[in-house]
Amino acid sequence: MYRIIFRTLLAPRSSSVNVYDSCVLAAKCDKTVFRVTNKCGVKTFSTSSSSLCEKKNNQDQKTQAVKEGDQAEVVKLKEEPAVLKADDGDATEQQTDVKTEQVASKQPAKTKNDAAKSGKESLLNLLGAMKVEVTNKRKLKNLKAKQSYESVTQYKSKAAPMESTISMYQKATGDDSSQSETLDPDLVAAASSAASTLPNRSQAESELLRQLRQHEAITEAQKKGDINNLGVIIAEMKVGKNPNRQNAWPADQIRFDDDGRGYTHYRGITSELSGVRKRRNLLLGKRLNIFTSAADEDGIEPAAAAKPTLWDMDFANQLSLSTNQMPRNGFEEMIQWTKEGKLWQYPVNNEAGLEEEAKVPFHEHIFLEKHLEEGFPREGPVRHFMELVVTGLSRNPYLTVQQKKEHISWFRDYFHQKEEVLKEADVYLE
Amino acid sequence: MLFCLKRSLNEALKSCFSLSNRSREAVLEALASTVSRDPTAYPYQFQDDPYLSPRTSTEFKLFSLSQESGRSAAKYIVNNNPKLFTKDFAEPHIPCLMPETVSLRLEEVSEEALKERITLRKVTAAVDMYDQLLQAGTTVSMETTHSLLDLICLYSDRDPVQDGEPQTDDAEFGEELKKRKARVRRASDFLKFTWKENNNAERIFNLLPERDTRCYSALIRGMVKHGAYAKAFSMYTDMLNNRLTADVHIFNALISAAPDVRDKFNERWDLVAELLNQMNQQKVRPDLLTFNSVLKALRRCGFLAKTQALHTLNEMKALGIAPSLASYDHILAVFYKSASSAQNNTDLLQEVIAELEGRIFTCQDPDDVLFFSSAMRICLDSKDLELGYKIQSLVDVGENWRLLGDSFQQSIYYGRFFNLLCMMEHIDVVLKWYKQIIPSLYYPNPQGMRDLLQALDTDSRLDLLPSIWKDIKTLGHDNKPDLVEELLSLMAREKHSSEVQESFAACALDVKSVFDLRPSIEWSAASLSHITTLLLRANKTRQAWEMLQLFKSRNRVPSEGLLNNFLSVCHSDGDSQKAVQLVQLSAAFCLPTTWRLAKRALAEFELTEEQRAILSELETAGEPSD
């Protein structure tokens, strides 16, 4: 973030016309700041802004030029509360913006070689700092609310729900118009409530409040400035335009892009935008108006239930011939084989192909004595023999239940046929 | 990298196991999704046999066709000798490995036998059986009659070529099958396969005691498929007179036939619109194919097409029918009629692509496979690289690449894409794509290679030419004299650093050796002198001298500039003997400028008396008299 702010110092070093330039870049940087706060919590942010504050104290005479700029901006902000509201909502959108901007800002950042701060630079440093405030104002509609917002983001970064953020916004927007010198009690309350969610409560609260006061000081100092720097005014006006920056961005950015390729980029985006505009004309026009949509759903597609005709099969064949069905790797080939039934299905199951048998519960296999109830004597050697047979069968995993039953009934028939012989030998009872 | 793979595998497996109702292939699909394409590998189907690794498109075609024909042959043997393949080793049983029944089992005259003939698609046998049944007085059920009519109409009363059956029939059938495989079939493919007047389908149809929509449907579809368009329409009128309502297939067939029965554009469209209105009246719900037929018919409706095509598309959307790629293909064809017209307006394509972006498609219409290549053609015509990239990224989504079609279609698509890249993109990016798609996806033709050479020239990366020459050789384009000459002229055009000249000379020698291997190729004087120049620049005087000898044996004449160059090299080598020989050689070619060479040699070299005598003789002999 420092780098980005410093970068804003370098661009305008040569000429005052470039102030506009620097503001655009500063606008870039303010979004970056926004992101930083989200990412790393308040710490980075507060340190940076406090350092800016120091600068301001050191170079008071420079700040005067800046002050009126701030005033102009305040006017602007009053003019566009409606737009600001919208801005609040789409934080995500801005984040995506930030990404592209960061990419875009890399190049100028590179050109920066050191952070040697002349007086002019520190002025611009302040300009950058102000931009930071501007964005936050835009989000919170109140300069002072900024600090509470920071605390909110900090709070968020410690994994907190969005609702509290929103309520915080609302609280903060309550004191919209009053640019009071002292800290607003509501704001203090908000800060302390935000701090209360943090582990180190008292420290966090004092930090927050200190930050708030620092910004109060800055605001006040800047407010007292008079309007004499035309360049800054122009710059501020440009920044005031920023709410519709979604559209303004590509054009601005390309204008300051040293890279010649920027122009093709520009063209690409405009063509895309014009594509969006024209899409409505071309692909969404009139229709034939022959069919009524979905009105006559009854009485159609009686053939759906019928089995596929030869025509259907031929059509399916055409489809498969026209597309590329070649497998690209071994797995795809295995998928093809699985579909053809040539391969074990994954996950591998050692009961594959035994789907019929799986329906038979295990006790049908094991407890076969019940099949001896009928047609066999209750005791004696035949019974004894059959019990052995049943025991053997119950341990045989290779036969189906049906086969086992058939096996038993074969013995049943056999002993019935030999009943006479057995009776003679006195072994067949009953 | 291993970690990455592991993680993606984990995710894939997790997603597949979390599905409560997963399909049989879920695990494999999850695994397959972790494998990305390897641009350095041959296509998967050729990886089994390193000998069968295709390097050119011809080899690719040959190898894949032989693979396929081997499969068909095996299938034919198995199916026709089921007695030899009775053993079933597989546990559980695998039905598709066992022989299929291809011959008739039921011999008696019965409806069952007729059904069997229908399922085996024996057209003539089925017709015979039907006649026998009628003679015997048996009534055939309506369902069987329907499928019989379907069968006859689909194959236009001829026996189809059975899978794996030797093609003893006339070559016509083979031709037809090949065409069907090679590209999406068109009505014109069937023109010689036409619907015959009063064939068995019509005969059986007329014999039927009562005819329902299905019977009409079979006949009308058959007639349209086999080119009897007018007859199809009269059949339709006949059906309406019998107070029957048509089904969606009849309308689809009739709409696609509409441009063939009317001559004027507006008459054609009127007919299509009337058919659609009748559909609505008869409460027939249109499907995707209906609208695709309408759009396809609109391609032949001239000036009406543009407005009506968009209306049709909106009608589809209003009815909740998602357009397939074929629908968009037809629309693009309507809007970007000819490649020649300088139409730089890609708005429509841009919108179409924006609408399709990121979607996964399945093939719903045989024409779907034409979309990508024609969209890329439009990009190429309008030189819109950005859009070309968008199309390429659409191909990369999911399994959309399957919709590039067969290898022929695919090579057209990539050919156009590569051409576009060479024209518009920076050479580094071109080379990145070159490595990625060549040769794993695309075997460039000589024109494609020429485009690449031009791209190299534009961005002055001519130092890469030797490696491109290697690729040209691998791709089998080293027998195209035009291409090789262009390569040589690019190398010889200007001087480069010594290392580059060294590699160029090695490359030139390689070219020469390839040409030596192929004596049938005609060497042009230009390519010979380019090689010689390259060798001279790399101080390979001996080889260059050999090249000069080649001029003679090939009946080519070297240019004066080349000989002058050669003379300069001789001078810097201090080789006066060679210089004299050179002048003699020039005289042998009867070059009109020999005297100038001789003069130069006399002036610049330290010569012996003898050499001086020879040269001055040559000088005076050739010098113009004035």
Output the number of helix runs of chain B. 30
State the shape of chain A.
elongated
Secondary-structure element series of chain A: HHHHHHHHHHHHHHHHHHHHH
Q: Note the run of SSEs of chain B as H and E.
A: HHHHHHHHHHHHHHHHHHHHHHHHHHHHHH
Note down, in words, how this protein is organized.
The model of chain A is unreliable at 1-117, 131-181, 236-272, 274-280 and 295-304 (pLDDT under 50). In chain A, helix 2 runs antiparallel to helix 3 (42-58), helix 2 (19-40) crosses helix 7 and helix 8 runs antiparallel to helix 11. Among the domains of chain A are: 183-224; 355-425, no CATH class. With 430 residues, chain A is mostly helical. Chain A has helices at 2-10, 19-40, 42-58, 60-79, 81-89, 91-111, 119-140, 145-157, 162-173, 185-196, 201-223, 230-240, 245-255, 262-282, 310-322, 330-340, 355-358, 362-366, 381-394, 401-417, 419-424. Chain B is mainly alpha-helical and 626 residues long. Among the domains of chain B are: 89-163 and 188-244, no CATH class; 444-546; 557-626, no CATH class. Chain B has 30 helices and no strands. In chain B, helix 27 (560-573) runs antiparallel to helix 28. The longest helix of chain B is centred in the first third of the chain and has 24 residues, at 57-80. Chain B is elongated. The N and C termini of chain B lie far apart (80 Å). Chains A and B meet through helix 14, helix 15 and helix 16 of A and helix 2, helix 6, helix 12, helix 14 and helix 16 of B.
